[in-house]
Specification:
Bound molecules: guanosine-5'-diphosphate, adenosine-5'-diphosphate
Strand content: 25-35%
Helix content: 10-25%
Largest sheet: 7 strands, mixed
Length: about 400
C-alpha cells in the first residue's frame, strides 16, 4: 500500500468543493479559464489521432491562438482532468495512467514562461512532469578545463549506470579524436545553435574559450525521462544561469591542487593546441575566482588525488548511505482512475475514483497535496504528494452529492 495520508491533511475534507469553475472537461479536451484566457488542452488532430495540443482563446479579442509549447508533452491517454493551481499552472491528471507517470503541469505564467515569453515575443506555455516527493536533484559540476570533471563524471556513471545520466551539451567546438557526436556533445554549427537559442530551446548557453556551449531543455529531459538523475558538466557562467533558473540542482565546483598541476594535466591530456592550452589556463584563473562567489556553489572539492576526490564526491552526493532513499514509497501499481471526479480545497486535490473495475484491492481515490511544489519547467515539478485514501471512502461519499 502507499503512504497513509497524515491526519492533518485530511482535516476539513468536508470543505472540499467539486471542481466546476476553473476547468471544464469534454471527452478528451479540457478548457481552463485564467483571467481573460481559456486554455484548451487535448482533443484530436485532423486525423482524429488524440493529441495533447494546447490552444488559447482570448475572451476579449475573441481570437484563438496557438502558443509556443516548450518541454515534452504527455502522451495522450484516455482523457485527462485539469485543475488550475496558483493561477500560473494547470495540473493535468492523465486518466488510466500510472500515478508515477500521469501527473503533469502545464505552466502558463510561471517566471520561466514569462522570461521565455519576453525573449520569444510570443505566447509561451511549458510542460513539466510531476515527480512525487523531493525526487533526486540534478547535479551541476563546474571547474576549469583539465581539472578532472570529465574523469570524475565517468567514474560516477560507470559505478552507478542506472542512477545517473549525462546531459549532453551542444557545442560549436570541433570534436576531439575520441569524442562521439551525441554522446560527449552534440557538435553543431554556430548559426544553427544561435537560432535554437533564440527559439528558446536552451536552458542556458555561454561562450567559453571562444566557442559556444549550451544545455538544451531536451538534453535534461532525456535524462529525467529515462528515470535517471541528471549530471551537467558546464562552466561557471552556465552554473550561474542554472542557479537563476527553476532547475533546482546541487552545485559542485572542482578545484585543482595548484595551477601548475592544472597545466600539467591539460598538456598531458594532449587534446588542445598550445594556443588553446594558453587560453584555457588564462581563463582558469578567473574561473577559480568565480568558483568562490558566495552562494553560487554548494560544495567545493579539490581534485588532488583522484580516488580521494571521487570518494568525497560520492559522500557529498550521499551515495554511501542514501543512494535512492529520497523517493516516497513506489505506488507504482496504482492508477489514476479512468473515471473520476475532482474536488479541490486550496492546494489539496481530491481525486475521487468510481468503483474499481478490476475489483482488486487497489485504492481508487487519492489526495494530491500540491502545497509545496518545487522546480518546474524546464525540468520536473517536484513535491506533489499523493496519498491513497480508499479507507476513507465511505466518509467521503457525500462529496458526490454536492
Ligand atoms: N555553459 C556551459 N558550459 C559548458 C557546457 N558544456 C560544457 N561546458 C563547459 O565548457 C568548458 C569547455 O569544455 P570542453 O571543451 O569539453 O573542455 P574541457 O573542460 O577541457 O574538457 C568546460 O568548462 C565545460 O564545463 C554547456 O552546455 N554549457
Ligand atoms: N586527480 C587527478 N590526478 C592526476 N590526473 C588527473 C586527475 N584527475 C584527472 N586527471 C587527468 O587530467 C586530465 C584532464 O581531466 P579531464 O577529466 O579531461 O578534465 P576536465 O573534464 O575537467 O577538462 C585527464 O588526462 C585526466 O586523466
Amino acid at each position: 500500500m502507499g503512504e497513509e495520508a497524515p491526519e492533518n491533511l485530511l482535516e476539513g475534507l468536508d470543505k472540499f468543493s467539486p471542481l466546476q469553475s476553473d476547468s471544464e472537461s469534454q471527452g478528451y479536451q479540457t478548457a481552463t479559464t485564467i483571467g481573460d484566457k481559456i486554455y484548451v488542452i487535448g482533443g484530436s488532430d485532423d486525423g482524429a489521432k488524440l493529441s495533447m495540443n494546447v490552444k488559447v482563446f482570448n475572451k476579449l479579442t475573441r481570437i484563438w491562438s496557438i502558443p509556443t509549447v516548450l518541454g515534452t508533452k504527455p502522451v495522450p491517454s484516455k482523457g485527462h482532468s485539469a485543475v488550475l493551481l496558483n493561477n500560473d499552472r494547470i495540473l493535468i491528471l492523465m486518466r488510466d495512467s500510472p500515478l508515477n507517470d500521469g501527473t503533469w503541469f502545464l505552466e502558463v505564467s510561471t517566471p520561466f514562461v514569462k522570461e521565455k515569453n519576453k525573449i520569444l515575443g510570443t505566447e509561451v506555455v511549458a510542460w513539466s512532469k510531476g515527480v512525487r516527493g523531493d525526487g533526486p536533484k540534478p547535479i551541476v559540476i563546474s571547474g576549469p578545463s583539465g581539472v578532472g570533471k570529465g574523469t570524475l563524471i565517468s567514474k560516477l556513471m560507470k559505478e552507478f549506470p542506472s542512477t545517473f545520466g549525462f546531459s549532453v551539451s551542444h557545442t560549436t567546438r570541433a570534436p576531439r579524436e575520441k569524442e562521439v557526436d551525441g554522446v560527449h556533445y552534440h557538435f553543431t554549427e554556430r548559426s544553427k545553435m544561435e537560432k535554437e537559442i533564440k527559439d528558446g530551446k536552451f536552458l542556458e548557453s555561454a561562450s567559453v574559450h571562444g566557442n559556444l556551449y549550451g544545455t538544451s531543455i531536451e538534453a535534461v529531459e532525456a535524462v529525467t525521462d529515462a528515470g535517471k538523475r541528471c549530471i551537467l558538466d558546464i562552466d561557471v557562467q552556465g552554473a550561474r544561469s542554472v542557479r537563476a533558473s527553476s532547475l533546482e540542482a546541487i552545485f559542485i565546483f572542482i578545484c585543482p591542487p595548484s595551477l601548475e598541476e592544472l597545466e600539467k594535466r591539460l598538456r598531458e591530456r594532449g587534446t588542445e593546441t598550445e594556443e588553446q592550452v594558453q587560453k584555457r589556463l588564462r581563463n582558469a584563473k578567473a574561473e577559480l575566482d568565480q568558483g568562490k562567489s558566495p552562494g553560487l556553489f554548494d560544495h567545493i572539492l579539490v581534485n588532488d588525488d583522484l580516488e580521494t576526490c571521487y570518494k568525497n564526491l560520492k559522500q557529498t552526493l550521499g551515495l554511501d548511505e542514501t543512494a535512492d532513499a529520497s523517493h516516497q514509497p513506489s505506488m507504482k501499481n496504482y492508477q489514476i482512475p479512468l473515471c473520476h471526479s475532482i474536488s479541490k480545497k486550496d492546494k489539496k486535490i481530491l481525486i475521487h475514483g468510481g468503483s474499481n473495475e478490476l475489483g482488486a484491492a487497489t485504492p481508487t481515490s487519492f489526495l494530491l497535496d500540491a502545497s509545496s511544489l518545487k522546480g518546474g519547467a524546464p525540468g520536473r515539478t517536484r513535491g506533489p504528494k499523493i496519498y491513497a485514501i480508499d479507507s476513507l471512502i465511505d466518509s467521503l461519499n457525500w462529496i458526490e452529492q454536492l
